[in-house]
Design a protein that fits this description.
heterodimer, A: 493 residues, mainly alpha, two-stranded antiparallel ribbon, 20 helices, 2 strands, globular, B: 491 residues
Chain lengths: 493, 491
């Protein structure tokens, strides 16, 4: 038996292995010094993420390498998305440091769960096999359920965690079921194998499409697309804001990777079918997300519905890769890179928006109602301007990154012949502009109700300012990020 | 002729706004002088655009072309022809006036007020000089942000409603334009260059759809009847400076859009739908003229008068003859001066009385003679008195209209009566007669700063009315070229 064992090439998975080893160290350090030196675990977590980033950069050779018996892939796309994931997680840790400490939530578990969720995302991003994908997804999801419930004495948190868990488990079940169907039809668990089987065309179409429906439902749940969006508002609302920020940023990258790997790498042969499903969900998400966001008075709920609509816009790019049944690599790269660009832009904006919510909160006070933004311009013109930039960017007004993200996906959709869908999408972005403008209105036109000075630490202030500046800078000079997204996809597809 | 003048005209005000913001609202004196310095610098760099302009050339001048977003072949492509160049000067000039007008009046957050206007000015220069579809759109849309803030922060009691209405109305239009721009990009094989689009052959049905997408966008901005309702609200609630910029510059963006996009890109649809456009324009001229007659609020009256005058502009464009188009362009510039001056005059009275209602005034001439003289002068030019700039444009458009169809010209000419009626009736009730009430009796005449602002505008109006040749000569070649281009079918 042992003679058959071939030691897999561990080199491509070096960041994952490093993170896992470091997580043990964090566990030990927190066990020994946790009571007196909480900062050590936090510091070590950030160091771990930086180390992962360094390893990812070092091991990135631009080549597509498969390892662990073709279950794990390391390509440019995975490197890019992992780097963004480390970035988003690190930002969240710094934004949330004071916030979690004020509420006594910065326990050792917090850092460990964050690390394991990150590991799960990394595995998802690098998955080349249904099982790896599922493994990563579950590792991420279970850690996230725990994170949502981290404030365990708070009934709202536990309720949110429970909802998240039940619905998440259902979605995982759907996904797994879909995977088993596809496996049954194609005889392969590897994405490459599935693609090849589809290409040869011997598989039973009915079984494939049935499996596909379940698979798409699972993906849509993770992306938060209508009608699989129910968990988003409650979880966003219930979780501590730093955790909401976590859920609203990095997992979107992982979910995007999952969608891309499953649908494009594995099931491109069924693109005609899944594009239609995505089309319906995109339109519903854009419509319902934008309409429901208007009715919210809680900013976390508003941003939750806004997240739903943003993922809808992102999917406009994802569903436009195959035009008229003709496989054209150029069109495909264009469309998928626009979706990637949208995701990256959204993560940047989402981090900033939740960062603002954290900025206004302080010990014993959650600034999560829209009212709390009233008169911010009088309290702090600088941060009002940062929020203004983020809100206009989310609304898709130039010169901010959100506009170019919408621009790219709309162009992809029109190119694929979905002009009517594009018109619907822009009309709903008009609806969306209404509630983003309302935040600006509250900040600039109204008098403050809360005149307490902003007490956030210098790290949060600097980082948040940089975040706002980045949203503006990527809007003034959108070229670099767009080219990175395009090149990444071109060399990974 | 390669120069950076247009970039300077755009970025001096925008980057100059940064130190103004940074100076903070506490140091008011510094803020004002800084803002004035930036505005004046912004105006001075535009002067060479006129003096170094080659009037024999119909093409784009002062061209700057740098790749911006290589991924989508978007370029930072600037240039002006005889049609757009005057508006950059007008805009930069009006910005100086606005800074001066807000000198003492704005007490709250003056740094943000001045900064917002400077940013606005730069963005609008960008709109007039952009020759790349995306660049144009980006400037067009971004200019909504400062205006939204200006109306919402320094506006009247109903400012939130007005600001939101302004923003959403304009956004509605421009989003459809975005779809049209993306369609043109794909149709032209991957170019956002507006000049390439001018040469692009397009079929009948797409032409009409694109025309409608552009129409919604520009008609809201002009504004044309029946999508004009945001304008009276915005004007009434906006602070004086906001009204001035709205009336003098922002309204021109829509009309400019017709000349830069609709007419040359989809000429056949423009011809085909011209009767509809002419009808809408005439409704604006005549019907809105009557509406203006019954207004009790001075700002609202001038707002309706603006809509009516802009109806003349769209009328001039869609009768497709040289004198009509040139007249429309002259009308745009002239209206820029006159409406700015009218709103400033109302602002002068509002600062003293805190009322815009005609009924609250009467006999202002008795206490403010200098002001009354200027106000009456602007009112006369608003109603198209010969020897003022208001007359030139209207006369040319009417002439052009009569060339096309006598009754068309006849209908348009009613504005000379209507315009005179509503403007002069307002003047009679506000300026002349016995002193209306105690408040009017205690009014102080305008100071040196106000006199300077109104005097400069009066001089411009008079100069343009007496000798319009310097304005028509620069646009002649470009208009000629445009009409030749529009006359050729693209089908």
């Amino acid at each position: 038996m042992l003679n058959n064992f071939v030691m897999p090439d561990l080199y491509p998975a070096a960041p994952e292995i490093f993170l896992l080893l470091m997580s043990f160290l964090v566990l030990f350090v927190d066990l020994i010094f946790g009571a007196t030196h909480r900062w050590m675990a936090a510091m070590l977590t950030v160091v771990t993420l930086l180390g992962c980033a360094a390893l990812t950069l070092v091991t990135s050779d631009g080549q597509t390498t498969l390892t662990f018996s073709n279950m794990f892939v390391d390509d440019l796309l995975s490197d890019f998305l992992k780097l963004l994931t480390y970035f988003a997680v690190t930002m969240m840790l710094i934004y949330g440091r004071q916030y979690m400490a004020d509420r006594g939530l910065d326990k050792g578990e917090f850092y460990l769960l964050v690390l394991y969720a990150t590991l799960g995302m990394m595995v998802m991003i690098s998955a080349a096999n249904f099982l790896t994908m599922y493994l990563g997804l579950e590792l991420m999801s279970l850690s996230l359920y725990g994170l949502v419930a981290i404030d365990r004495d708070n009934s709202r948190c536990t309720e949110a965690a429970m909802k998240y868990f039940v619905l998440g488990a259902l979605a995982s079940g759907l996904l797994l079921y879909g995977m088993s169907m596809i496996y049954g039809a194609t005889g392969s668990l590897e994405l490459g194998g599935v693609a090849q089987a589809l290409y040869q065309g011997h598989s039973e179409k009915a079984v494939l499409v049935l499996g596909l429906v379940f698979l798409v439902a699972g993906v849509a749940f993770k992306l938060g697309l209508v009608p699989f969006h129910m968990w988003i508002p409650d979880v966003y609302h219930g979780a501590p804001t730093a955790v909401t920020m976590f859920i609203g940023s990095a997992p979107k990258l992982a979910a995007f990777a999952m969608a891309l790997r499953l649908l494009v790498y594995g099931l491109f042969g069924l693109a005609v079918d899944w594009q239609k499903m995505l089309l319906i969900m995109a339109v519903l998400s854009i419509g319902l997300g934008n309409l429901a966001a208007i009715a919210q008075s809680n900013i976390k709920r508003m941003l939750a519905y806004s997240a739903i609509s943003h993922m809808g816009y992102m999917v406009l790019g994802l569903m436009s890769g195959l035009v008229g049944g003709q496989v054209d690599p150029f069109t495909a790269v264009n469309a998928y890179s626009s979706a990637l660009y949208y995701t990256v832009a959204y993560v940047l904006m989402s981090l900033g928006a939740f960062g603002m919510v954290i900025l206004l909160s302080r010990a014993g006070y959650e600034a999560e109602n829209l009212e709390d933004f009233k008169g911010l311009n009088k309290r702090s013109p600088w941060f009002a301007a940062v929020m203004l930039i983020i809100m206009f960017s989310m609304a898709g007004i130039p010169f901010f990154v959100g506009f170019f993200a919408k621009f790219a996906v709309l162009l992809a959709a029109i190119k694929a012949g979905y002009t009517a869908v594009a018109v619907i999408a822009v009309m709903f972005s008009l609806v969306g502009a209404f509630y983003y403008l309302r935040v600006v209105k509250l900040m600039y036109f109204d008098a403050p109700v809360d005149s307490a000075p902003i007490t956030a630490g210098i790290d949060l202030r600097v980082l948040l300012s940089l975040n706002g500046a980045a949203v503006a800078a990527f809007g003034l000079f959108p070229d670099a990020l767009m080219l990175v997204c395009t090149t990444t996809l071109m060399r990974s597809l | 002729m390669n120069s950076q003048l247009l970039s300077l005209a755009i970025w001096i005000p925008i980057l100059g706004a940064v130190p103004v913001f940074a100076a903070g609202s506490e140091r008011r004196c510094l803020v004002r002088w800084l803002a004035l310095a930036v505005a004046v610098a912004g105006f001075l760099v535009t002067i060479p655009l006129y003096t170094r302009f080659d009037i024999t050339q119909s093409g784009m001048q002062f061209v700057e072309q740098v790749p911006w977003i290589t991924r989508f072949n978007v370029q930072y492509f600037l240039g002006v022809d005889g049609i757009s160049m005057p508006f950059i000067l007008l805009n930069s000039f009006i910005t100086v006036m606005v800074v001066l007008a807000g000198w003492e009046v704005i007490e709250e957050k003056q740094a943000q007020y001045m900064g917002a206007f400077l940013v606005m000015s730069g963005l609008m220069n960008g709109i007039f000089s952009a020759l790349d579809g995306v660049l144009f759109y980006v400037f067009f849309e971004a200019s909504l942000i400062p205006m939204y803030i200006i109306i919402g922060v320094w506006g009247g009691p109903n400012r939130v409603y007005a600001a939101l209405k302004f923003f959403l109305y304009t956004l509605l239009g421009s989003l459809l334009m975005l779809v049209a721009l993306l369609w043109l990009f794909l149709e032209s094989g991957g170019s956002f260059n507006i000049l390439d689009w001018h040469q692009l052959p397009i079929g009948t049905k797409p032409q009409i759809l694109i025309f409608i997408a552009f129409l919604v966008s520009f008609a809201v901005k002009v504004p044309m009847w029946p999508v004009h309702t945001w304008l009276p609200d915005a004007h009434v609630e906006a602070p004086t400076g906001g009204s001035v910029v709205l009336a003098a510059i922002a309204l021109k963006l829509g009309a400019y859009g017709f000349v830069r996009f609709s007419l040359p890109i989809v000429p056949d649809a423009s011809h085909y739908l011209a009767p509809m456009m002419i009808t809408l324009s005439l409704i604006a001229v005549v019907y809105i003229g009557f509406v203006a007659l019954v207004q009790t609020d001075m700002k609202k009256l001038i707002a309706y008068s603006s809509i009516s005058h802009m109806g003349f502009v769209t009328l001039g464009f869609f009768i497709f003859n040289q004198i009509g188009v040139e007249g429309a362009l002259i009308q745009m510039i002239s209206h820029g001066f006159i409406s700015a001056a009218m709103f400033l005059c109302v602002g002068v009275m509002y600062d003293r009385m805190h009322s815009r209602m005609i009924a609250d005034y009467g006999g202002v001439v008795n206490t403010m003679p200098k002001f009354a003289a200027l106000f009456v002068f602007f009112a006369m030019s608003n109603s198209g008195l010969p020897a003022t700039s208001g007359f030139v444009g209207e006369f040319m458009v009417i002439l052009g209209a009569i060339k096309t169809n006598f009754w068309l010209g006849f209908a348009a000419a009613t504005t000379l009566i209507l315009g005179a009626a509503y403007t002069l009736w307002m003047i009679k009730r506000v300026v002349f007669g016995a002193v209306g009430n105690d408040h009017v009796a205690t009014l102080e005449d305008i100071g040196a700063r106000e006199f300077l602002v109104l005097g400069l505008l009066a001089a411009s109006v008079l100069a343009m009315g007496l000798y319009p040749f310097p304005f028509t000569e620069v646009m002649h070649a470009s208009v000629d070229n445009l009409l030749k281009h529009v006359a050729v079918s693209k089908l």
